[in-house]
Amino acid sequence: MFERLGRFVVRRAWWVIVGWVLAAVAIVVTTPSLSDITSAEQSSFLPRSYESVQAIELGKKAFPQQATATATIVVKRADGQSLTPADEARVGQLAQSLKAKNISRTSGYLTGPQAVAPDKSVQVVNVGLDAVAPDDPALLDAVRELRAAIGAELAGSGLTAGVAGDVASFVDNEDTFNKAFSVVGIATIILIIGLILIIFRSPIAALLPVVVIGVVMAVTSGLVAAAGKAFDLNVSQDLQTILLIVLFGIGTDYILFLLFRYRERLRAGDDKRTAMIVSVQRVGEVITSAAGAVIVAFLVLLLASLGFFGSLGPALAIAVGVMLVTSLTLIPAVVSLLGRYVFWPSKAWQRAPKATMAHRLGAAIGRRPALVAAASGALLVALAAGVLGYKADYDFSAGFPQDTESAKAAADLQRGFAAGALAPTEVYLTTGNGSPLTEQQISDFAASAAGAPGVGRAQPPEHSSDPSVARVNLLLDKNPVSNEAITLVRDELRDALHQAAPPGTRAVVGGPTAIFADINSANNRDLSVILPVAAGLIALILALLLRSLVAPIYLVIAVLLNFAATLGATVYLFQGLQGKPGITFQLPIILYLFVVAIGTDYNILMIARLREEAREGNEPHQAAAIGVEHAGPTVAAAGLILAGTFGVLMLAPISFLQQMGFAVAIGIVLSAFVMSMFFVPALTALIGHRAWWPGHGDERPASGPHAPPEPASVAKA
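The structure corresponding to this sequence follows.
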């Protein structure tokens, strides 16, 4: 099939290119924008079955006037002394003056005696913010305007103030985020161009992936937006960035797979058209299987209970599908027309280098497969042991620079009030049937809630416009986004509050800590479902590719072991060496996307080459040696590009970006080098012919179109 596809594409290369251009233009012009299906509404992140989501919905109905976000103005004396009655009165005047300015998207400006810290160190003014997302540009401008007004109002008063909260934090760190992702984008292009220049010594080969992936990105965005409109999918605003990273990752892999094999065939003496036909024939099945495994891995995200991942999966699957079609049609058409000029001006493609590093590595693995398999496997197991100490971290604020206004104001707030003052736990008491709550029921519940486990302070009950609902905000005595607080809410506090509800009523627990507690439960559930299902489906694809049951088993085990090793290495570095309280809770699913899914490409390329060399008549040890020699440089180049791209994130002054950068970079390095270049070839050599049981994948098929076998003595990079 792939030989026929290769012949069609090569013989009608101009038709393929023109057809691609017309299709791309039509898709870009007729499909909606990707921004049309993006959403920052967090209430859809969790299913409605979770209690924190029920609390959000109850709060919106019972307190329709409440703002969707808040900014907290934290006022203190400039000399560090306690606030005086005159200072407290001045803060009240500040609140009224700010309210009179009618700053867009703000409301409330609530303060008073209850807003003064018990030790008189600070007083707060709570400002309501009207927005659906903390990064709403109009909201960011409102916070900037608010800060400017505060400075003018407090001039000469002996008081200073800072604005804390999620939106204020986003304002303070917006430039840091933008610079970090700009650096990543630039670094990606530089790494791709620079590394391919080093490998092929050709500007044409270096620019080819950048240009093609740019076109594919435009087409993919249109198709994803169209699918989103058709199936009512809402995806995160991060989708554009994730799509770009995925396309550069797999796109560079597939293009390198073809270019390395094309150069190999030219060195073997094929003309430019025959070389591409044979390349598509030999590599097409590998690319299709690799893409199929990645698509399956992404589509398994539909099983996730977290809404973001469920909608992300189809979008990424579409991206991989478009890149697959591109790799089997547009790339071969363009390269077959360019011929040897794709490597211009270098002449290195004409001769095979002697005594290369890949040749020496392959020979070493072929001679000592047991030692190599034991050493590489032991390294992965040792790193994987770090998973036992893994703790999820939900405190984004601790990962940002602590010298910003929002960070300093938050620190002042937490010193003066209970630790949970900036993110209270919202408890709604309701009859559920519309009958009004009595004052006795509300006061009894509030008193019981104040004495619940982990509660540092209970704020006065709030009556809603709905007489059947009241709210009590609880300030925890722990950091509200710490593991301790999340565990407390999930395991003890919720049960205690449910039991404290008077007869005929029920308590619904919400707020940031409760949301994270539910996300924690959902995340654990999703990983326990997604990883086994994805492993099973990837094993099925490998079984179809290899016509074997044995090889897919140890290949999937290797991928899962690599996932654990990557997470363990991250735990060792950040929790162990750096003393962080945990690893960002999003990291396991990020590793699933970029290490399990994309890292599988390298395994498939290597095992397919091992089978090919076995079919050429080489015994298992020799097949492993030649397979590593031939496929190793491709795996190394693709892995270095993707790992280097993520590694740049470690330069960002934001903890969770550093963690993501290190984890994905080390995961790709482990996938490409330890797993695919050492562990899998060595294990395959040890198992020998049994690796292909019950089929005969390592035997030359009796019939079918085949290119002439390459001499085993020819060294190819």
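The chain has a mean pLDDT of 85.
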